[in-house]
Amino acid sequence: MPRFGGVLYDQGGTLAAFKGSEIRGVVGPSDVPNIPVFGALAGKKTWNIMIRGDTSNDGGMTVSFKFAPDDSSEVADLDTTITWAGGQTVGGATDPFFLDGPALGSGGGGGDDDGGDADDGGGDGDDCPDGDDGSDDCPDDSSDGGGSDSSGGGGSDSSDGGGSDSSGGDPCPAECVSEFLLCATDGPGYSKCLEELRAGSPPLGDVCPTGCKETSEMEGVQTTPCSDSCADEFKVCVTESANSYAQCLSQLRAGSGRLGDACGNKQCEVTSEMATLESISSPSPPQARGGGLCSFACEKEFAICSDEGPGYSECVEELRDGTFRLGALCDPGCTLSDAMKEHDHSRCRKHCEIEFNVCVNHGPGYDACVTELNDSPAGSPLTRVCTAGCELTQAMKNQDDQGQAVCSEDCREEFKICASEGPGAVQCAYEIRKGIPPLGPLCDAKCKITSDMMTFTAPSPPPFPPVHECSSSCQAEFGVCVEYNPGGCSACRHEIDQQPEGSPLVEKGCSKGCTSTAAMQEWCPEV
Fold first, then answer.
1. What's the CA gap between 186 and 206, in Å, rounded?
2. What pLDDT does 114 receive?
3. pTM value > 0.70
4. Fewer CB under 10 Å: which end of the chain, C or N?
């Protein structure tokens, strides 16, 4: 998005990308309305330019930009450059990449403070109103910033925030702009803050002159109203928890917790219905039940929060801080009941318990499944549904097969063959449990599969005999073979390598694979 003199440009215009003097991309503003649809830049125009290049020749090239506003003949050179890389994406609709340049009309390609021509920045005065020749008699020249020429440095040009405006005031000063942006982004939103600015209400009224005109930067924080679901959750936060309006607004702006989930756009505009909640006092949380235990209503909400919400630890924090629904239903100092502790994420969850049962009864057995649960190897079914090292539930501990007899010797030997030469240890364990041959007939389906069986690795095969040179007796017989065998060198070498029974070469000590001596190579260089 182009910015001139630090001010976001939101009118029509053409953006072009250059490598030196070569044009590598041209684009106008996006024709999709209201993009981006949320955030501080909602509804602002974007220029989605594609910069073309060849990765073999253009990788690392410096790309510069020029911008031609629709309402001016000026072509502005932008200061921002990028280094091009193939397939690279820079910026996006909600996190745009800004292209900065000097204020429009400040010189170079447009009108300037020296009374120059809006077309070329010169001083010939050919464009003075009513055919004036540009002399000192030219009225309301752009050099004094007072005329209405939209291409000049002053007047009513919306690009630089100068001159007169329908609001009838001077631009708001920098300290006012900063306070307004803080109010709009961290407070009630653009519309409410604008009302405060117009009414002169503090804190904006303390730093903003009465009737000052909003700058483009201030207008840039306009956003959409908060959604109905956001407004409903905000109401719950204010009326059904121990939070104040300010605390709920702070949570909305931070995008945290349930408000963050319900609202999505943390910079959404606070609706009038939400604003009326500012005067409501938050109710006190209910008291704990007997023995200091958290109430049944608290216990029920805690289960929902842990299993369907942010999880056990964050729900405990919400309860202790007195925030959100738990803050409305729980005494922050109440003692967690056993039923609430069951939702502790440090304990294995129900779906993990089910998968563990499958692992023990249809897989490698209790010890191996515990190891798998703790180590959390990639691709393990337990890894997908369990937190690594979670505390075993009682139902999982009951699966312990310590009382079972270890698989028989024959079963273990066949298992090693299956694991090392077949489908692997996990599938072999399944075959034992299901009685699938060849393991099924040799193994008790409930026998204890030891860790040695699950981790067995077959020994490496013996190394191939080392390369050696043919013996002298082999060399002598090879010479005879070459001289008298019709097949010559190839037939004799083949006889050495194949070792046929009754071969004179074999009988003379030519071992399989022996390398030819120097004499043999001289006789038969091709073999």
1. 18
2. 36
3. no
4. C
Distance CA 437, CA 416 (A): 14
pLDDT at 281 over 90: no
Q: What is the mean pLDDT of residues 57-79?
A: 85
Sign of CA dihedral 431, 436, 438, 443: positive
Angle, alpha carbons 293-299-305 (nearest 5°): 135
Rounded Cα gap, residues 428 and 451, in angstroms: 13
Say which residues have a Cβ less than 8 Å from residue 449's Cβ, sequence separation at least 6. 364, 365, 368, 407, 415, 429, 432
CB contact at 8 A, 7 and 172: no
pLDDT, tens only, 292-336:
888 888 888 888 887 777 778 888 888 888 887 787 788 888 988
- 252: closest CA among 232, 235, 267, 271? 267
The letter for the amino acid at 25 is: G
Rounded CA separation 519/354 (Å): 74
Distance CA 109, CA 107 (A): 6
Q: Are 69 and 104 in contact (CB under 8 A)?
A: yes
Report pLDDT digits (tens) over 96-126.
Answer: 888 888 887 665 443 333 333 333 333 343 4
Task: Output the CA–CA distances (angstroms, integers) from residue 266 to 48, 220, 261, 281, 323, in the order listed.
Answer: 25, 16, 9, 23, 18
Grouping H, G, I as helix, E, B as strand and the rest as coil, residue 458 is: coil
CB atoms within 10 A of CB 74: 19
Residues in the chain: 527
What SS3 state is found at 256? coil
How far is it, in rounded angstroms, from Cα 488 to Cα 466?
Answer: 27
